Amino acid sequence: MSAEHRDAPGPASVVDFAITSRRSMRAFLPDPVPRATIEDILRVASRAPSGTNTQPWQVHVVTGAALRRLSQAILAIYRDPEQLARHKEEYSYYPQTWVEPYLARRRKVGWDLYGVLGIGRSDKDKIRSQHARNYEFFGAPVGLIFSIDRVMPKGSWLDYGMFLQSIMVAARARGLDTCPQAAFIQFHEVIRTQLGIGADRAIVCGMSLGKADRSRVENTLVTEREPIENFVHFLSD
To answer: Residues 231, 232, 234, CA angle at the centre, nearest 5°?
Structure first.
């Protein structure tokens, strides 16, 4: 039996730690991530399951000048209200109508983040400036942009989620951090132009990758999770 098919040695706690220590970091150190490490992470993540092995993912990795150009192109539009109004999200990531308990959870995480940053609910300019940091990949040295062929249906998008989670867990296993970002989908046209992505592909999301700056207060935020008895239903008879 090849090593690939043997059960991995070691305690489950190693995997558990990589999963449970994953958080969306919003400030990164500028330390570069070696290309070999990025490739390793993506190679591991490519083992994520997909229906009939369709593997519907494509990834554009931006670093250095390419990352800066993409950020500058998006921020130029974000800071211009007239241009911004012409850029609509490629798809609806969030519901059109919010209901409970999702509305309360969304509000809590938002105000918890602004709270640790010392941003009040009426500080619209500071809120907007903080949101703009998405488009700088929060200072991360690596930005990832994910796309999918438009012919692929909802099932392939579910597969894509497993691929994204695998990237984030593999990054944590290597002492790195991430932040998945739906904020990029509003600027799908800019992203396609900057990265040479065809119109036949939809932009799924972006992701920041690097080593979190643990000295930054925004990275102290730990979001809450529901206890499993609130969402798990055991049936035995």
So the answer is: 155
